[in-house]
Every structure is written in structure tokens, then in C-alpha cells.
Amino acid sequence: MDRIKIIQVIFFIAAAIIVIRLFYWQFIAEINPNTILGLQDIKIPAPRGEIYASDGFPLVANQEAFLLYARLTELDRNPQEIAKLLAPHLISEKYSTPGAQLEEELTNKKEKEEGEEEKRLSEQLSNDKLIWVQLARKVPLETKQKIEALKIKGIDFENDNKRYYPEASMAAQLLGFVASDKFGDDIGYFGLEGYYDSQLKGKAGRLDQLQDPFGFPILVGDFKPIDSRKGNSLYLTIDRSIQYIVEKNLKEAIERYGAKAGSVIISQPKTGKIIAMATYPTYNPALFTEFEESAYKNQAVADTYEPGSTFKLVTMSAALDSGVVKPDTKCTVCTGPRAITGHVISTWNNKYFPDSTMTEVIEHSDNIGMTFVADELGKDRLYDYIDKFGFGKRTEIDLQEESKGDVRDKDEWRPIDIATASFGQGLAVTPIQMVQAVQVIANGGKLIPPKVVGKIVENGKEKIVKSERENQVISAKTAALITEMMVSAVVNGEAKAFAPKGYRIAGKTGTAQIPVAGNYDPEKTIASFIGFAPADDPKFVMLVKFTEPSSSQFGSETAAPTFFRIATEILRYMGISPSEK
Amino acid sequence: MSKLTDFKNKTNKTDNFNLIGKVRVKFLVVLAFIVVASFFGQLVLASNLAVGGQELFRIDEQIKEIEAENMTLRIEIAKESALSNLAIDARELGFDKPSEVISPN
Predict the structure, then answer these.
(1) Coil, strand, or helix at residue A164?
(2) In chain A, what are the domains?
(3) How far apart are CA A135 and CA B50, in angstroms?
(4) Which is it for the CA torsion A533, A538, A544, A545, positive or negative?
(5) For A162, A177, A277, A475, which has the most beta carbons within 10 A of its beta carbon?
(6) Which of A399, A434, A212 minimizes the C-alpha distance to A310?
(7) Strand, helix or coil at B65?
(8) Would you call A219 and B97 a contact, using CB atoms and an 8 Å cutoff?
(9) Is the backbone peptide bond immediately before A534 cis, with ω within 30 degrees of 0?
(10) A170 contacts B101? CB cut-off 8 A
């Protein structure tokens, strides 16, 4: 055989192999009809950034979860049968706590929910106009494994990660939650998830890739991957242990005093860092749909209220800083109730202390004494200091739902408004604004806006978040004077019995009536206590606020004991020994 | 009668032609071999790359599995070290809250 023939045979064999191979692909190989042939444009989802406490513990992490779908043309059982099998696994996670014994009421509710779920699934699976239908999102791994064990043909899963909260409802209102937008993409709502959504969500990638009929990538084809970029992680200034102490005490106090709601904020005065922020009633962000929408709101930054006597610190600071009064200046109008343009102002307990000094005015929380201070100060100066302390505008804390409170324009202030504002009525503030204002006193007169995020980590690179503004609102001397008045208010005030022994704590009670349709409700109050410790070198500023406590209306009998209980635990946690015996 | 020199010249021409012809044939054979080898080489390479797609797919799947496992483990660790769980464990072990600050001397 000559060489040409050999080459001819080789070519023939090669051609035959190619033809046989093509025949195999065309007629023999079982190619999945659902595989999209050709160029695949795949969206690569970006993992959402985590949120960590100051000790690096994840308060919000990502958990493996799945999207459950059905390929309707491939189902091997009838829709009703499949719906009955799937429904018990797709009802709320609250029923699936391992080992939980459900009460009768909850059992009935579970059965009802199962029935509704079965109906919904059955309808979806019976739709003959679709070939693919989404049955559930964010299905946990354990549920996926249970459903897979049912071996239903045509039922499948896709990755659909979800948020996990290792500390359950801890700092829920501060963190916010993640739900879906109208396109089905994850989006953060409320708190940090809402405020930092653009940072946390990252950037989805794309994978333009040629694939063979089995879905395997063809490496000689076009391959243009754009990697997804994981969202940035947030490291908070929140101290997890202090947050735990606060939440535990707040819950107990709300139950003890029969309050409708309560908030506690704790910050570091020298840095503006928030180290704990809690609101009760709270909710579980993993099961947010099970709770009332009103629970989502972070009352510590969103609620406005009339601050009552805690605001006297602002008025007195302004007067001391302006030099119109001194701590030993005597009140010349404190002999009894005072009438101002037809309105009668009295003290909270109808006790009057003629010739009391400014320190005693704060100790007694004397409304008449404060009207005297307001007279000395005048409208312009009082208004300017209220503005300088940051009231009537947002503190710019990095949380989504912050309110700016309500301080009327200066032109609208009548003499009675000046008088009532001096003791914290007729204007609305937020709890975080009050904390910012008392931080000024604890920080030698400097205002530093509060912050919750300490650093943002992007691809391993850290970006420190710092408050950019720093204003000297009052002089350091004024701050020292008002601090001493606050210490006296704790030592000689109504709540002195609850103060921990040996510590110098600066504080002030507040009991404000709640305005209802132009008048004040005679029964309902907002009781609060604000202060800092240790008074000589403040490590924390704390506000405790209760809405409508029922056991007592007064801050000195509800908020103050709670403040001191929490303060005692924090001082011990921080290793701060008593300074006095 | 032709001259001896002319005859010699003719012989030389034929020899030259044979030499060039042999070189050309060899060149063409080598070229053909290279072309055929490249063709088959590319086929083999392409085939290997196509099969390599399966390998890539397998590795990608393995990466996904390991990442998912990591995620689950991280969650388990966080669950175990959550303060609410630690507080329960501490209580069961007989630990109590500190009643005073203890400073090392």
C-alpha cells in the first residue's frame, strides 16, 4: 500500500469518528432539555457584608439558605399531593424550634397556617401556563434536606442566602433587617441595614460563558467573568456585653414598672461612640414578618418626646455659660406658683423653696426656679444655646430613621413658651439628641455627634469612621459647674436612695406629661433619667426613658433606679472601683 | 557532434534539478506533516480543554461546597458563643454576677 492510500485511510477514519460523535450528540446522548444552550449570562450574587460588635463577634452573619422551585412539566405526582407534603416544611420557622412543646393555641394556629400554605402551593403547582414556578425563598438547610428526602421529581433548589442573628433579637432595632425589593433582590430596611444598604449589599458579578449541552463550561469559548464584590462589613462601637446587660435590665424594668415601652442609650462622651442602644418591646429580625411593624422603629432615634426636667440641664448650662447666673445665685421668684401671660406654672410636687440657689433649683427640679433662669437668659440666648446643643436638627447618627425633633422658630416663641421650654415642655426632642447634649457636659463642653459604626472593612482594607464635627458649645468651666450640680442632684435628689455607694454619679431625673390634642394627659407621662459616671472622668453617658410607666409616673421612681442598676453593672464590668467609702 | 563541454553542462543541469526536486519534496512532506500535526494537535488540545470544562465545573462545585460548609461552621460557632447561651451555661455551672470590683494588687 502506498503512502497516499495510508493518508486517505487516516482521513477516512478521522471523518468517521467525527460523524459517529456527532450522531451520538444528536440522537443518543440524553441532554437535559432545561439546560439553556449556548452562551450563558449568569448573575453571580454578591454576599452581603456582615455586621460585627466591637469585640469582633458577628451580630449579623450570612446563612446558607435556598430558593425552592418546581419544574411543573416534570412533576411525578399530582399538585395536591406535593402541596400536602411540602406545606408542613414551609410554614413559619417559629413552629419548628427543636424540642419545643407548642401550646394549644399555637398548635391550632400552626394547623391553620399549614392549611393555607397547602392551598397556596396547590394553586401554584396546578398552573398549566408556566413551566417553572418559585415556591418559597430563604428555605433553611435543614428544611431543604427534609424536602430532598421526600424525593419529589421536579422539585429543586437554588442558593438564596439569608441573614442569621447569633444573638437573636439583640439590638434588633439598631440592626434593622433584610427583605426583598420589588425585583426580588435583598434590600436593608431600618437601622444599620437600611442606612448602610449600599455598602453592605456589594456588587453582583456576571459570568458570560459558553457551555456545552450538559452545562459544563467550554474553556475554548468566550469566557468573560466579572467577579461579584462582597459587601463591606461593619464593625460597630457596640459593646456586646454592655448591650446584653442593658437589654436584660430594660426588659425587667418595663415589666416591673408596667411601662408601655422603654429605651436606653449609652455612649462614650469623649468619642461620641454609642456602646449600647436598646428599645423594648423588641422583635426578632429573622422572623420580622411575625411582629407588628411598629416594633421595627428604633425609638431611641426616631421617637420625639417632651424631655421635661432633664432639659433643665441645657437651660442651666446656657445660663451659667452666658454668666447670667452662678451656682449660688438665688432665685427671687421661687416663693410660689407663677403666672405668666395668664398661664400658671407650679412645681411638680407643689413644694416651693424661696431663695433657693441654682444648685438647689436643679436638686429640687424646680420649675419656678427655671423660669427665673429663663428670664435672666432671655429668648435669644436660650434659643441660640438650644440650637448649639443640637436640638431641632438631626445628630447625623448613622441610623436610618432618625427624627429631628421639633423646636419652633424663634419668632413664634411667646413669653410662656420661653418659660415652659426652660423646664423641657413645649418642645420635642429625640433620646439621641438628649444623649448628645449631656455628652457635651461630660466632655468638657465639646459636642461630638454620636456614631454607631467604628470602622468599615472593604476587601480587607479598614476605613475608620470618625465624627468630623467637634464644636465647643459651652466652656470647660461651665461643664464642670453643671457637672457638680448634677452630682448634687443625685446625692440630694429624689432618687438618692437608689444610687450605688462610693461612686460619684452625675444625673438628672425627668418626668414629662404627654401632650394630647392641645392639652397634657393628667395620667400618662414619659419618665427618664440621664447622667454619666464617674462624674470626674466620665466613661459613659446613659439615658433611660420609659413611656407611660404605670407603677409610678415619676422618673425618680422608675427610670432612676433602672439607671443606677445598669450603671452599677457597667462600672463593675469596666473594672471601675468606687472612689469614696 | 556535440562538444564534450556541452554534454557536461547538460549533466550538471539534470543533477541540479534532481537536488532541488528532492529538497522541495522533503520540504513539502515536512510542511504537510507539520500542518497535519498542528491540526491533530489542536483537535487534541481543544478536546482536552472541552473535557477540562468538566474538571473546572467539578472544582467550582467543590469550592461552593467548602464555602457552604465554612458558612455553616461559622454560624455554629457563633450560635455556641452567643451571650444568651453563655449566660445559661454560666448559671448552670454556678457562676454569679460580681458584687464588687476586684482589682489585682
Answers:
(1) strand
(2) 65-160 (3.30.70), 240-573 (3.40.710.10)
(3) 36
(4) positive
(5) A277
(6) A434
(7) helix
(8) no
(9) yes
(10) no
Collect all residues of chain A within an 8 Å Cβ-Cβ radius of residue B33: none
Q: Are A438 and A425 in contact (CB under 8 A)?
A: no
Which chain A residue shows the shortest CA-CA distance from B71? A63
Distances A39 to A35, A132, A206, A220, A347 between C-alpha atoms, Å: 11, 21, 12, 13, 79
Q: What is the pTM of this model?
A: 0.83
Please state the three-class secondary structure of A99-120 as a single string: CCCCCHHHHHHHHHHHHHHHHH
Query: Cell numbers 436606653 correspond to what residue?
Result: A264
Phi-psi sector, A390: left (phi>0), alpha (psi -120 to 50), beta? left
CA A207, CA A223: separation in Å to the nearest integer? Answer: 8
Read off the pLDDT of each residue in A202-222 and give the average, rounded to a whole number. Answer: 67
Contact B78 A577 (CB under 8 A): no
- Residue among A251, A279, A309, A260 at smallest CA distance from A550: A260
Alpha carbon distance B3, A294 (integer Å): 123
Q: How large is the average pLDDT for residues A48-54?
A: 96
Single out the residue of A176, A285, A235, A231 nearest to residue A48, CA to CA.
A231
Cell numbers 433620646 correspond to what residue? A431
- Which SS3 state, helix, strand or coil, does residue A138 take? strand
Q: Which three cell numbers stand for residue B88?
A: 445559661
- Cell digits of residue A428: 420635642
The dihedral through the CA atoms of A342, A347, A349, A353 has a sign that is negative
Among B82, B87, B98, select the one facing A166 at the smallest CB separation.
B82
In order along chain B (105 residues), what is the average pLDDT of each group of 10 residues?
Answer: 52 65 83 90 78 81 90 92 90 81 57
Whole-number mean pLDDT of chain A? 89
Rounded to a whole number of angstroms, the distance between the first and last alpha carbons of chain A is 116
Distance from C-alpha of A84 to C-alpha of B7, rounded to nearest angstrom: 107
CB atoms under 10 Å from CB of A460, counted, come to 6
Task: Count CB pairs under 8 A between chains A and B.
Answer: 70
| A422-437: pLDDT as tens digits | 999 999 999 999 999 9
pLDDT in tens, A514-531: 877 777 777 889 999 999
Give Cα A45 distance to the centre of its chain. 25
Strand partners of residue A158: A67
Backbone φ and ψ of A351, nearest 5°: -105, 140
The count of other CB atoms within 10 Å of the CB of residue B67 is 12
